[in-house]
Amino acid sequence: MAEDNQNNQDHSKSSFKDQVLRSLRGEEIGNDDSASSEHNAQNLSHNNEAEYNQVDHVQSHKQEESAPSEEIYSVGSRSAEHHAKQNEQPDFAAKPELEKHQGPKNEESNKRTRKKEDRIVSRIVLIVASVLILVIAIFGFTFYKYVDAGLQPLDKKNSKLVQVHIPEDSSNKKIANILEESKVIKSGLVFNYYAKFKNLTDFQAGYYQMSPDMTLDDIGALLREGGTAEPTQLADGKVTIPEGFDIEKIGEAIEKNTDFKKNQFIELMKDQAFFDSMKEKYPELLASAAEAKDVRYRLEGYLFPATYDYYKESKLEEFVEQMIAKSNSVMEPFIPMVHAKGMTVQQVLTLASLVEKEGVKEEDRKKIAQVFFNRVAANMPLQSDISILYALGEHKELVTYKDLEVDSPYNLYKNTGYGPGPFNSPSEQAINAVLNPAPNNYLYFVADISTGNVYFAETYEEHQEFVDKYVNNTDTEKSE
Is the pTM of this model over 0.90? Predict the structure, then answer.
């Protein structure tokens, strides 16, 4: 019987513990078992009470027989307390109150966690942003260096020429690629965008001779001039004559790039026999130049600015004739317009040489050309600084009032009309501006050196206002 009671007690304890564990896990206890659970709980409570009484009785009996040590008593107390807590019915109603009590602490802890996470995220964002900025800066610097390098000659020390063929209907992009493949430029991409920026859209097909030391400007000018229909013998060098160069500067360019000397070239420019031989070959071009009076060089203005081939076996006369022939081919389509305006080639090239230096933009050049025509019609001197500099034989930035007194037929402050002849070799654009000027009533113009803008005026008073405003040097220097 005692064994049965012990089994019942063990079973009751096990059943109660299972129910408590299931309740803590949130599992529902079936309604059918509620009565049994309540009965088992009551039995368990009763049995526990009997058991605890029995334990107390045993402990009391042991205490009477022998005094236990403090350590044994302590362990027994903790054991009893542990059993009491284990057998005690859990108070589920206290859980919400506990959570309520711990709520503010949890919230504060969450805030600290969020702040820590925010700091971590901010650091990550800062690091990522810094890396991106660094990458962009490196890319930008690298791209700048790439473009800057692409704008420079491929090899400034290599003047060896190569034959380059540009097929018909080649786009700028294709031409750029051909130039890069031919090893005369560093980057086809840069050249393509350079051509677009410069609005160079009239490149011509043909065979060209180019070298790695040529600038993009030189190559662009050469492609606009046109190549040959068939491959030609590779030249020993190239000579580029920029727009606006006079005889003196052309001589310097020739000496620098060929075996010819500047003094040899100057002597040839003064050689009347050579001029006469050229006039026989190009009569329509040089007829008016032959009749000009008081000229310094009869061929001034007739050596067209372009890039020319140089062959060591060629003579200086043959090399110079290339320039005259080029000038003849450029002027030939304009000859009917020259005659229609009642002008001579000498007069057109003279005005064009002034327009070349006085203006940069095409629209400004056309207006300046008309100002010169208006002054000629009013019997006023052209008053161009370019004429004073040529008369002085100097290249200087500023012209003083003393310079205006120079005694020379080229001084167009003292002398009316066009003067003896051209002051430099003008470009085709300047020639076209003279033959197709923009109609206006202006008699004066002044250029702002810092911006390149040109301001036009009909009266001298208005002109002086522009001079004071945009030049501001009227006390010591003269400005056109």
Answer: no
